[in-house]
Amino acid sequence: MKMVGEFFKNINRNKVMLFMVLPGALWFLFFSYLPMLGTVIAFKEYRFSRDGFWASIVNSKWVGWDNFKFLFSTDDAYVITRNTLLYNIAFIFIGLILSVILAVILSEITNKRLSKIYQTGMFLPYFLSWVIVGYFTFSFLSSDRGLLNGVFESMGIESIQWYSESKYWPFILVFVYLWKAVGYNSVVYLASIMGIDRSLYEAAMIDGASKMQQIRAITLPLLRPIITIMTLLAIGKIFYADFGLFYQVPRDSGTLYGVTNVIDTYVYRGLKTTGEIGMSAAAGLYQSVVGFTLVMASNYIVRKFDKDNALF
Amino acid sequence: MSQRKKKERDFHNLSTPMNISFNLIAGIFSLLCVFPFLFVVIISLTDEGALANNGYRLIPEKWSFSAYQYVFDMGDSLIRSYGVTIFVTVVGTIISLLFMSFYAYAVSRKSFKYRNFFAFFAFFTMLFNGGLVPTYIVVTQLMGLKDTVWALILPLAVNAFYIMILRTFYSTSVPDAIIESGKIDGAGEFRIFLKLVLPLSLPGLATIGLFSTLGYWNDWFNALLYIDNPNLVPLQSMLMRIETSMQFIMQNASNSSLSLEALRSLPQDTSRMAMVVLATLPIIFAYPFFQRYFISGLTIGAVKE
Question: CB distance A128–B126 less than 8 Å?
Fold first, then answer.
């Protein structure tokens, strides 16, 4: 009794704060926690019931691990896992190298106004949606009107049916991703280069160090912590693909699925086009669980390097 | 990099050849980033006939404004999509700022007894999520948001990561002493938040607000999932739909007279590119603000407590 009284007293004492937290808390409940409970449908043969959400979940038949067994008995599970991982690995490492090189270059350019102008340009793709980027790509790759085939034609090279030849797409996707992300990331690194104490460079100059030596001995070592952390955090998200990139840029072209299908697009198509809801939910849960493990693991490693920059 | 090693020892600046090559690299990359947009602008200003003969060209044979003319004549559906996008962006940004600033402020206050619980409640959603299928079912079946404008607004309203950023911002830029002084003057918690805390936290809110605005303006995914009603289609999603129906007609071109008819009813290449330009222009105009706040947002600091 006393504890209940205490509880209500606490509620009353914190009522303004609780009121402020309420809308957000409800949002998390509906958009995050209920879907977490909803992952049980990965273990069910899901049937939409007219009596609404709870009835659908309760009335659907339990099938245990069947959805997972189906998923992993097909080639799909292997293909989507491989694509998701390999693309993300390429994005992380090539992206890192290019962004750091660009950030160093931007920081060294003598004319600061020019450097600002370059930054403004390379920041732009980050602000555009994948739909727009999809149109951009199309203006280059369209088989009858695209710029690339036009150039090929004028040089007497046979034109290419870009949207049905899967062998080019790993390169195209990596290129488009880098085009969109490198500018933004290099500005992140540039911000931390700007935070480096200038007197270090002055001391190095007095000792006669060249610019290259300065970059190697001062800039890069001082960037190492942020590079490590950004990379490890990215590795924590390696099981999640950028849906827009893999859906919009190849224009959902079926002949390209072998190299463009990733976990996220697979789940989407299972839900919206093929209607294999159970299997799609199973793939989604597989992604969430492995993703969770990877976030925890990479955070554990970040903590070992640098407690301040760990996520938690 | 190593072939470009210094020839001379310049103590203060880059050697001239290196400065030139650095400028070239950065300049070319920067141009590469802007080029596709310029190219699409050029296509949209090309004469449709010239386009049919030559394909997309950097320097068109014949310039023309007819694509824009067509888009403005077409009017209705484009204007409606613009309207949907603007409504969703404005209302969405307001709602998400309201929800997130309240939540983050409460969680930042040491006097709030349940702050750790609610901080974790938000934080955990960054680590684990139910995935697309259960979310879709909750939104459509439990909340019944399918084909409503709320399906475009609510799913993007709250983001745990932004709450973390805002909380850090409150706890570093709003000193406890100010809140205490408000209390001594007899102001209630709400008054303190509105009169004392909000003005101090405007830079942080502006940054998060711009992130939200951009997220709403560029969103097509929620429309893809939840919207079938043509009157509720936002701009980005409309661009996507035109493209999809083009492809559908191309792929099913067996009945050629019928598909030709259908093709003619859709906007031509130049008009579609004109729509792409019109969907991007607001971002280009807002760009200077975005750039400033995004960079300050990057340096807003560690997310952690």
Answer: no
